[in-house]
Structure formats: structure tokens, C-alpha cells
């Protein structure tokens, strides 16, 4: 597919009606396709995780045997995949660390799919401090229809019915199960249709290893380990061991006043289990080989933009901070997103990126205003397609930006994400005051978040921002979030 191909709206879940207020807990905060693209997991600020499943047959070729008016057979066309809601569960709850007097939000920061085993799905979810491993399994459930019982049933039998059938589940030798759905004092009469129900269960919880907010989790290609990163440390875990991890990177100085940069993102190499990369608030990407040393702080190669454009200003260091980073499937290229640009890196070239794409260059003169209202600290995700030749990220006014490598079109494609282009924008949730971030403190730039009332002086809607998105691994399909709505676009 070329960049000139038309991107169009495909699906929307949880679309907001005009003028409807969005609750803070309903705002989507993370999303991830699984390896095959058959499932999409989406997390929100209320600690919930929703699973969407690819509809069977939607990606097949249509056999067009009828002749067209010209007498020729129609060419079969491939339809884009469509998804349907599967299940949801509460992954995290709000907590309070009494030793440090810190409130731990339930917001889902990251979601990562693990290797599928025995037709069961596994995924990792993380909030600021805790990572959980979840198992999602489909099981056949026989629904039970109810019938009224005679009033002469004894109170003892009624009590037995309440206890045994109120909310219980029994197993059968054929692997199915019966779910008694009666909540009154009634006996079951006969079985209804057998349906597939997805059950979720927390398998393990990995906790007490991070003193700062978790910003990254990444599965290793060995299928056995994963990493978790916060502002100052990166740990490696074994999926089977919940109470022990290995710290491979520690950037915490002896005196916190000497802190100059923090870790912003980390990811394992797609197929070399000993390699990983992590980005920093100074705009650097460090490449690590775990075979060289148990502690990987110094044995690194650094990718940095040596030819940074323009003169240095007060805001140069802030906007250089990398908010997201993704390995391409070839393992050689890395895509990174900072506040103003999207950059493609070749890991064999340390001095400059292969390509730089400007996202909202018209905001550069407005950096002082963006700093005043705290918008300059917004963290945008980035993603790329399976062949690593197309990239996407978000911007303000709910704009989705799509670029293609080697086309000579540095402006790419810009789309406003909404189902109806003539619809009025919905009311966005009122943002909480921004909590003190270690990355902001490291630069000495932290200030309390202020009202975005000055946004009418800026040429975009700062309250409507597309922060999170994911690219389907095999199809030209992009999932992105706008507030509490999940949109999908295909080409």
C-alpha cells in the first residue's frame, strides 16, 4: 500500500454523543494488538481492560464469479478485519502506599500480550507500581432456564437452592460447565443453549520492585521473561517467578540533586533475546546487550540526533524527551516520538535518524503558552506497520498522522478521528492537576497544571488529543483512542 491510499473510518466502540461529558475513569490509556492481530486489548484510567476479538471470515477473499458489464471477471478483494467486543475485567484497583504516603492510581499504563498457550490468552497489565499476568480462557457454558416452584417447597429446600444455585458453577467431564444464573429461591428445570464465555483469572502479580511510576513493560522473544521499566530502573522478570526480579539498569544517582535524565520507554528486541533499547528524557536511545554485563548501565550504544535543528532555547530539552519508542519487526530500525517530531532510526547509524517527520510544527512559536498550561508534557504514542515502512502517531484536535518511508512526502496524511465529520466535538473530561513527575523534576521544569483556558489563542484544540494508538500486525488497520471512544481506521 502506498501513502496515497485512502484511509477511511472502519469501526467505533463507545462513541460519545454530542455534549456528553466523559468521566475521568472512562478515558482510554493503553492498547495493544496481539501477535496475530486476532485480539485487541484496551485499558482505561479506571483500571479496566477490555478485549476485542477479530470476527471470523471478515478478512477472507470474496470469490466474485459474476462477470462485470465489460465481460471480465471481477477481481477478488480483501476486506479489512472487523472486531467485536469479547469481554472486560477489572485489572487494578486504587491503592495507597502508607510507608511513602503515595496514592497509587488504578490507571492502566501499559498492556502487553504474552505467548498463547493451549487456546488460552495471556497478557500483562501495569499501573504505576504493579504488574499482573492475566489468563483469558474460553469455556463452554450451559445456561440454565428457571421455572417457578410450588409454594409448598420447604424453607430448607429454598435455602439449599439459594446456596447451591444462586451464583455457582459446576464442571462436566466434557470440559463444559453449568452456570446457575438463578438468584431467587427457584430450582433449575432444563438446560438452554451452550454458549462460549470468556473467563479471566489473575495468574500472578509482580509487585514491590519499583519506587517510581512504571512506564514500560515488554515481552522477550524467549517467551519466558519480560522487562519492566520506571523513571530510573529497568528490571527483568521470569513469568513464572512473581517475587524476584533482576535489576539490569539503575540510573539513580547517589544524590537526587544530580539527576539529569530519566528513562521514558524500554523495549526488547523483536527476536534477539539478549538485546533491548531504552529511551531517555534527553532524547537519547540506548542499545543494550545483556551478554556483556549483568549491569547494563555503561555497556551501551547511544543513538542521538547530532544535527538537532535550530538554536537551543529554554524548551529544547523538554521537547526532546522521547515519549514512546517501538522496534520495527526487522529488528534494525526503531521509531521514536518526542513532542514535536517522529523519528526513524537505523541502529547501525548512531549520529542521526534516518528520517524526521514534523507532527505539529505550527505549535513551535506557541511553546511558551504550551508550557504555561502544561500541554508541553503530553506524551504521545507511536506505532508502525508490519513491514516497518509506514508510521503513525497522534496530535491535537484528535488528528491522526500517517507517514510512509521513501515516498518523499514528509507531510504525510492527516485525519481528524471521528465518525461523522460534521459532528460537533464532545465535551472532554476535566483533567486532573498534573502530579509531580520525576522526569519534570529532573529538568527542574515542574509546575502545577493550569487550566487550558488559553487554548483559544492556539490554533488547535488542546483538550482533544490523540495520545494512544496501535497498528494491526498484518493489516493496514490502526486502532486509536479519543477520550473514552475506540476508533479504527483502515486503508
UniProtKB/TrEMBL annotation:
Keywords: Repeat, WD repeat
SMART domains found in the cross-reference section: WD40
Bias (Polar residues): 424-436
InterPro entries the UniProt entry points to: PP2A_PR55, WD40/YVTN_repeat-like_dom_sf, WD40_repeat_dom_sf, WD40_rpt
Gene Ontology cellular-component annotations: protein phosphatase type 2A complex
Pfam families reported for this sequence: WD40
Domain of life: Eukaryota
Location of the region described as Disordered in the Swiss-Prot/TrEMBL record: 414-436
Alphabetized GO MF terms: protein phosphatase regulator activity
Family: Belongs to the phosphatase 2A regulatory subunit B family.
Function of the protein: The B regulatory subunit may modulate substrate selectivity and catalytic activity, and may also direct the localization of the catalytic enzyme to a particular subcellular compartment.
Protein name: Serine/threonine-protein phosphatase 2A 55 kDa regulatory subunit B
Organism expressing this protein natively: Anisodus tanguticus
Amino acid at each position: 500500500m502506498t501513502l496515497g491510499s485512502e484511509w477511511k473510518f472502519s469501526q467505533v466502540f463507545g462513541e460519545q454523543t454530542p455534549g456528553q461529558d466523559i468521566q475521568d475513569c472512562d478515558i482510554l490509556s493503553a492498547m495493544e494488538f496481539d501477535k496475530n492481530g486476532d485480539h485487541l486489548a484496551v485499558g482505561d484510567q479506571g483500571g479496566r481492560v477490555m478485549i476485542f476479538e477479530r470476527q471470523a471470515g471478515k478478512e477472507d477473499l470474496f470469490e466474485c464469479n459474476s462477470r462485470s458489464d465489460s465481460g471480465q471477471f471481477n477481481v477478488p478483494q480483501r476486506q479489512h478485519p472487523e472486531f467485536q467486543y469479547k469481554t472486560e475485567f477489572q485489572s487494578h484497583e486504587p491503592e495507597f502506599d502508607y510507608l511513602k504516603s503515595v496514592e497509587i492510581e488504578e490507571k492502566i499504563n501499559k498492556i502487553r500480550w504474552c505467548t498463547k498457550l493451549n487456546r488460552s490468552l495471556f497478557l500483562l497489565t501495569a499501573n504505576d507500581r504493579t504488574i499482573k499476568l492475566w489468563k483469558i480462557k474460553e469455556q463452554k457454558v450451559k445456561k440454565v432456564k428457571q421455572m417457578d416452584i410450588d409454594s409448598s417447597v420447604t424453607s430448607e429446600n429454598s435455602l439449599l437452592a439459594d446456596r447451591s444455585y444462586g451464583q455457582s458453577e459446576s464442571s462436566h467431564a466434557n470440559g463444559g460447565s453449568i452456570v446457575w444464573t438463578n438468584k431467587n429461591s427457584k430450582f433449575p428445570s432444563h438446560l438452554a443453549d451452550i454458549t462460549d464465555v470468556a473467563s479471566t483469572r489473575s495468574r500472578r502479580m509482580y509487585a514491590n520492585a519499583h519506587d517510581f511510576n512504571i512506564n514500560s513493560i515488554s515481552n522477550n522473544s524467549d517467551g519466558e521473561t519480560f522487562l519492566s521499566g520506571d523513571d530510573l530502573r529497568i528490571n527483568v522478570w521470569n513469568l513464572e517467578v512473581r517475587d524476584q526480579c533482576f535489576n539490569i539498569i539503575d540510573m539513580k544517582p547517589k544524590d537526587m540533586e544530580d539527576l539529569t535524565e530519566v528513562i521514558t520507554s524500554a523495549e526488547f528486541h523483536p527476536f534477539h533475546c539478549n538485546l533491548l533499547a531504552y529511551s531517555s528524557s534527553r532524547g537519547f536511545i540506548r542499545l543494550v546487550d545483556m551478554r556483556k554485563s549483568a549491569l547494563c548501565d555503561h555497556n551501551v550504544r547511544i543513538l542521538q540526533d547530532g544535527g538537532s535543528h535550530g538554536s537551543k532555547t529554554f524548551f529544547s530539552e523538554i521537547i526532546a524527551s522521547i515519549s514512546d519508542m517501538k522496534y520495527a519487526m526487522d529488528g534494525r530500525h526503531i521509531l521514536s516520538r518526542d513532542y514535536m517530531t517522529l523519528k526513524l532510526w537505523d541502529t547501525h547509524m548512531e549520529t542521526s535518524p534516518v528520517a524526521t517527520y514534523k507532527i505539529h510544527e505550527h505549535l513551535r512559536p506557541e511553546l511558551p503558552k504550551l508550557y504555561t498550561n502544561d500541554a508541553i508534557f503530553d506524551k504521545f504514542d507511536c506505532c508502525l506497520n508490519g513491514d516497518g515502512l509506514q508510521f503513525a502517531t497522534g496530535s491535537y484536535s484528535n488528528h491522526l498522522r500517517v507517514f510512509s518511508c521513501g515516498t518523499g512526502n514528509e507531510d504525510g496524511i492527516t485525519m481528524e478521528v471521528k465518525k461523522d465529520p460534521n459532528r460537533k466535538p464532545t465535551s472532554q473530561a476535566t483533567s486532573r492537576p498534573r502530579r509531580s513527575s520525576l522526569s519534570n523534576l529532573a529538568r527542574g521544569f515542574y509546575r502545577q497544571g493550569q487550566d487550558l483556558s488559553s487554548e483559544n489563542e492556539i490554533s488547535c484544540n488542546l483538550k482533544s488529543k490523540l495520545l494512544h494508538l496501535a497498528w494491526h500486525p498484518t493489516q493496514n488497520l490502526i486502532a486509536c483512542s479519543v477520550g473514552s471512544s475506540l476508533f479504527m481506521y483502515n486503508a
